Amino acid sequence: MKKIIAQLFISLDGVVEAPDQWHFPYFNDEMGAAVDAALSPSDTLLLGRKTYDSFAGAWPEREAAGGEDAHFAKTLGDVRKIVVSNQQLDFTWRNSELLGGDLVQAVTALKNEAGDGPIGISGSVSVVRQLLQAGLLDELRLLVHPIPVRKGMRLFDEGEAPIPLTLISSETFRTGVLNLVYTRAESTGEGTYDDAKTQLPQPE
Known about the structure:
Layout: E1 4-11, H1 29-39, E2 44-48, H2 49-56, H3 59-65, H4 70-78, E3 80-84, E4 96-99, H5 103-111, E5 119-122, H6 125-134, E6 139-145, E7 165-172, E8 178-184, H7 193-197
Parallel strand pairs: 1-5, 1-6, 2-3, 2-5, 3-4
Antiparallel strand pairs: 6-8, 7-8
């Protein structure tokens, strides 16, 4: 079964909206390597409509321009891109297709397709939320920036039940950005204040 790996730029106060307005001062070679490690192994990208429109409006031109980011732009162009939308779309970026119908059912079918490469997600917050809730997201990679943005959409909205996660790796970049990788946990476990008290330092 194919893995689904999502990566998001996120602020210290949980904002994921419009990272182009606050994250570039923190972009360095370490973050570039982390982004490449998350996306380059993928043989499929699963994107929300807004994220796809943003990518399709920038990366084909960057590939054609032949600048420093042309290689990464070509990688994005060559990979299979599946766009989550309830509307019919006219695609101009190569290797793009529509994912219609029920998201959970369609993504479950994608996970069962042949192939070793993971399915990557960049941005696409609404898609990430739904896949987390459905237990279909295998890794959530958060690049936590040391800045409270103080306005904009947060990654986690209000819901009926918590979504427990397990931290499987962490790294601190020179800029202070934290590269945190989570997987879904079975449960939060059980505990009370009385349990916590036993872990407090005791007077000698």
